[in-house]
Amino acid sequence: MKKVKYHLRFQIIPGINVKKDAEILTEFCIKHRIEEVVLFFAGEEWNNGLLSEKEENLWFETIKTAKEIIEKKGIKVSLNPWMTVLHCDRGRKFPTDRRFKPMVSPYGEVSNATASFADKNWKKYICNLYSRFAKLGFNTIWIEDDFRYHNHAPLTWGGGFENQILKKFSEKIGKKVSRKDIVKKILQPGKPHPWRKIWLEIWREIQLDVARNIRNAVEKSSKGKTKLGLMSSHPSLHSIEGRRWHELFESLTINNKVVHRPHFAPYQEDLGRNKIYSIMMLDIQKQLRPIYCEVEPEIENFPYTTWSKSDTQTWSEMALAMFFGSDALLLNLFPFVGNTPNEEKNIGELLSNSYNSLSWICDKFSNEYSLYGVGIPWKENAAEKVETVEGKSFAELVVDPSFTWKFLLSYGIPACSEIQKVNAIFGNNAWSFDDNEIFKMLKSGLLLDGESAKILCKRGFEKYIGVKYKQTLTREESNYSLEVVKNSESGVREDIYCSVNLLPKFNVFKPFKETIVWTEVITPEKKVIGPGITLYENNKGGRVGIVVPSDFNFFRQTMAHKIIKFLYKNQIPFPLVSGSSYLIPMFFKKGKEEILCILNGCPDPAFVNIDYKKTPKIITLLKPLEKPIPGRVLKVTNNIWKSKFRIPYMSFLVIDF
Q1: ∠ CA 538-543-547 to the nearest 5 degrees?
Q2: Which residues pair with 135 in a beta bridge?
Q3: Which residues sit opposite 114 in a β-bridge?
Q4: pLDDT per residue over 620-632, tens digit each?
Q5: For the chain, does the N or the C end have fewer beta carbons within 10 angstroms?
Q6: Dihedral of the CA atoms 81, 87, 92, 93 (nearest 10)?
């Protein structure tokens, strides 16, 4: 039977207490059902940069000693080198006995401690390091999430613009070019310059070469018995690096095994409503890895006390990971500083108190279940296709679907990252898809915001979305301030007002004669600036809705539900949730099985309304750190079900249909 697997990341520091500390750690693991320890070395406060030969020897002996003690008690051991090229400088320097070439930013800034992926000396060093430790025989050896070009402070944006890489690029295009010229072309406003794709190809080739070399080193040293695990960051940032996820996982695979630690949650306390980000991240990354890949999501707390993150939030993140059928939980809950587990308060209790509810989820869910709802498609090569406006920052290459997820899930509308019958594309994500892909979505159902509608108009699709783009008004160019309801078919009476006062810009469209206008955007003088919500059925039978995604409120939730029903032609195949703010739905399907999970992301306890044609069968309430509780819902009208009790904050209502 599948069970909850706690994999605890922990650092035992070198010194006279290694054996004693390892024994204490082992006792802690046995007491709190931890089946695997992932040993750090040279992490955080005990990191002095990339390792000198002396430091490497010291950590090797420490790890070897600790591993032997832990394994004697039947606990598995994996390894987490804390750096590949290094996360950031933070006052560090390269070791004097190594000759590494540093990362260089797009703007010519040179790192003091972070190595270049193209440096031959560093590549030899990292492969030798992994090879040496792999001989000790670990379950998994991890590649840290510093395996990336972006985010290497204090460099602006990151690195990857070293002379070695500039030379590779010049050879590929057949002429010598400067860093400044390359950056200018990569970021040029408008249609992407061909150099951008070539540059990202080179970055990808360099990283894949490193990945294959590490894999070969580990496979040889461990005789194929040790797996490699990949830690990752936000997919939209990896897109800027040219990453192709399946190629990377294939390059790290040993004997058809590889592991992924997806980042999906913040490191410190956050609002429950922001768990939408976590749901999105878990679902998107599920599409980016091979089916055989093991998954151990990152359960993080930084800087590692309940002053940073509550047990309630940590529990909710573990629960989310298990809803998605994760194989294990990669727990990063202890400081790196070198104290023993029994000297850090509450962490053991958190794990023990969470176990029952997590086991319940684990028994019920597997990775065979998939999220279902409105599709929010996203492509790994989005950064190659997006058109920049100012061309001044790499941030303009980010194509992040977060707000689309926030719009739908905040209003109780289930969503998923795979293309569906009805899809939603907001913002610059509209550049990501070719004409055939857009046309296919327009033939069924498509939800847009003003920015994506503007882009589709520019691309020649205006006759399929029901509006013609006129202009974009910035906040200081117009005094637009209100959105007024003009059609009671929206579910809201005419002349109800909502605010658009904080919109940084507003795209003005002229609707077609056949287009239905539900709202208009106006000034304080009631001058009409342009349509807000529009609905349109094109000549291919597809339906399109355009919204103004501004402040959230109950009026807009009602209209959002009506828009979704319009796009599905009233044959909506999933539940709609309401009753309070931020009742966040996840609708899982496996064959004919359907399970609705609702997270209350609002601090106020809330009743839940569920609009669905099917009858609930089993209802369970999961409260933070408590055992599962059977629940009930009541039928209110033909298709509306209501919970008999209020759902507490950060709790899940799980309903089988």
Answers
A1: 115
A2: none
A3: none
A4: 999 999 999 999 9
A5: N
A6: 80
Distance between CA 494 and CA 349 in Å, rounded?
A: 54
Q: Cis ω on the peptide bond leading into residue 524 (within 30° of 0)? A: no
Q: Could you give the CA distance from residue 338 to residue 14 in angstroms, rounded to a whole number?
A: 9
Neighbouring residues of 434: CB distance < 8 A, sequence distance ≥ 6: none
What's the whole-number mean pLDDT along residues 316-323?
A: 98
pLDDT averaged over the chain? 97
State the pLDDT confidence band at 486, using cuts at 50, 70 and 90: very high
CA distance 214 to 236: 25
User: Which among 120, 113, 115 has a CA at the least distance from the CA of 94?
Assistant: 113
Name 423's bridge partners. 375, 446
Q: Does position 1 have pLDDT exceeding 80, yes or no?
A: no
Res 200: pLDDT: 98
Q: What is the CA radius of gyration of the chain?
A: 26
Q: pTM for this one?
A: 0.97
Looking at domain 583-656, its CATH architecture is: Sandwich (2.60)
Residue 136 tokens read as: 């000790």
User: Which band of pLDDT confidence, cut at 50, 70 and 90, is reported for residue 390?
Assistant: very high
For every residue of 79-113, DSSP letters joined together read EEES-SS-S--TT----TT--PPEEE-TT--EEEE
Q: Which fold has domain 375-572?
A: Rossmann fold (3.40.50)
Q: Which tokens in the block code for residue 560?
A: 């959002």
- Rounded Cα distance between 196 and 184, Å, is 10
CATH 3.20.20 residue spans of the chain? 1-82+262-286+297-367
Considering only CA atoms, which of 609, 580, 606, 605 is closest in space to residue 596?
609
Q: Which of 551, 553, 614, 578 is nearest to 414 (CA)?
A: 578
Q: Where in the chain is the domain with CATH 2.60.40?
A: 583-656
Give the tens place of pLDDT for each residue, 79-125: 999 999 999 999 999 999 999 999 999 999 999 999 999 999 999 99
Q: State in Å, rounded, how far the first CA of the chain is from the last one.
A: 24
Q: Extract the tokens encoding 616.
A: 């609930």
pLDDT at position 304 is 86
Give the pair of three-digit tokens for residue 636.
Answer: 């209110």
CATH 3.40.50.880 residue spans of the chain: 375-572
pLDDT score of 507 more than 80: yes
In whole angstroms, give the CA distance from residue 479 to residue 523.
Answer: 6
Determine how many CB atoms are found less than 10 A away from the CB of residue 482. 18
| Burial (0-12, 13-18, 19+ Cβ within 10 Å), 1 | exposed
Instruction: Look at the chain and count its residues.
Output: 657
Range 1-82+262-286+297-367 classified under CATH 3.20.20 = yes
